[in-house]
Design goal:
Rossmann fold, binds magnesium ion, binds adenosine-5'-diphosphate
Length: about 270
C-alpha cells in the first residue's frame, strides 16, 4: 500500500528545474532509498516532502495517506507523522539528552528513553544527564537523534545521508535502528549516495539532475548505481542535461550522461 506519493512534482529555483516531473510511490512499512550523485536533487526531495521554506512552491502534488499535503505547513506535516533527519544533526545546544530523545515521544518515560538509547548502542545511564552539545561526537549525536526518532515512532521518517559525519563504529547501530523502525511499522526513506546505505533498503529510486532515472529492487539499483553512476564523473547541472536529453529512457539517459562527460572533458582540455 502506498503511504506517500509524489505526482509530477516540479520545483524551479533561480530559473532551474531542480525537481523535474518527479513521480514516486513509497510503500508503507518498507525501506526505500533515494540514490543519486551529489547535486542530483536528493536533499531537495527530502526538503520538499517535509515542506521546508524554499521548497514549498511546487507544481504537481504530494499525497500522504491518501490526502494532499502540498499546501500544509511543516508542523502540520510533522503532526501527521512525517519526520526528517537532517544530514547535519540539528543542534539543540545544552538540552539534556533525555529531554531531546523524548521530545517527540508519545510516552515520555524513562523506560522509553532507556530502550531507545539501548537501540542505538548507547548506555542510558551514561547519557541521561549529559547535554546535547559539542562534547558529543558526530556519531553520538546521530545515534541520539535516531534514538529520538525511535522514541517518536513516526509514520514516515526521511533520513538524509544517515551515515554522514558518523564514525565507523556507529554505522552498524544506524543500520540497526533503520531495521528496528521498519519492524515497528515505520516507513523509511534513506537519502544517500552510499552503496552501503543503499543495501539497507528494499527498493530504490535512482535520481539524477532532478529526474527519476530508474526504480526497482535494491539489488538491481545497487548494480546500476555501482556500475554506472559511481564511475560517472557527471556533476548535476539539471538544465543543461535535460535540454540535451529529449527522450527519457534509461539508455538514452545513460548515453546523455556519457556524452555530457565527453563534452565536459573536452571543455576542461580546451580551457
Ligand atoms: P543532493 O542532495 O542530491 O546532493 P541537492 O538536492 O542538495 O542535491 O541539490 C540539487 C540541486 O539543486 C543543486 O544544483 C543545488 O545547488 C540546487 N538547489 C538545492 N536547493 C536549492 C535552493 N534552495 N535554491 C537554489 N538551488 C538549490
Ligand atoms: Mg544532499
Amino acid at each position: 500500500m502506498t503511504i506517500l506519493s509524489l505526482e509530477h512534482v516540479h520545483l524551479v529555483r533561480e530559473g532551474r528545474h531542480i525537481l523535474n516531473d518527479l513521480s514516486m510511490d513509497i510503500w508503507q512499512g518498507h525501506v526505500h532509498a533515494i540514490i543519486g550523485p551529489n547535486g542530483a536533487g536528493k536533499s531537495t526531495i527530502a526538503n520538499t516532502i517535509m515542506g521546508l521554506t524554499g521548497y514549498r512552491d511546487i507544481t504537481g502534488d504530494i499525497r500522504f495517506e491518501g490526502e494532499s499535503i502540498t499546501n500544509l505547513s511543516v508542523s502540520e506535516r510533522a503532526k501527521r507523522g512525517i519526520t526528517l533527519v537532517f544530514q547535519e544533526p540539528a543542534r539543540f545546544e545544552g538540552l539534556p539528552v533525555m529531554s531531546f530523545v523524548l521530545a517527540g515521544a508519545r510516552e515520555k518515560t524513562r523506560a522509553v528513553f532507556d530502550k531507545s538509547l539501548i537501540m542505538v548502542g548507547l548506555d542510558p545511564d551514561k547519557y541521561r544527564s549529559r547535554a546535547v552539545d559539542r562534547t558529543l561526537s558526530g556519531g553520538e549525536r546521530k545515534r541520539i537523534e535516531l534514538a529520538s526518532v525511535y522514541a517518536m515512532q513516526p509514520r514516515l521518517v526521511i533520513m538524509d545521508e544517515p551515515d554522514s559525519g558518523v564514525d565507523i563504529d556507529s554505522i552498524p547501530y544506524i543500520f540497526e535502528v533503520i531495521q528496528e523502525l521498519r519492524q515497528s511499522g515505520t516507513t523509511v526513506m534513506l537519502i544517500t549516495h552510499s552503496p552501503e546505505v543503499l543495501r539497507q533498503a528494499d527498493h530504490a529510486f535512482l535520481v539524477c539532475a532532478g529526474r527519476l532515472v530508474d526504480k526497482g529492487s535494491m539489488q538491481r539499483m545497487y548494480n546500476y548505481f555501482n556500475g554506472r553512476c559511481v564511475p560517472c564523473s557527471h556533476v548535476g547541472c539539471p538544465d543543461r542535461e535535460l535540454e540535451e536529453i529529449p527522450a527519457f529512457t534509461n539508455l538514452e539517459m545513460q548515453a546523455g550522461l556519457e556524452a555530457a562527460n565527453v563534452r565536459a572533458d573536452k571543455e576542461v582540455r580546451n580551457g
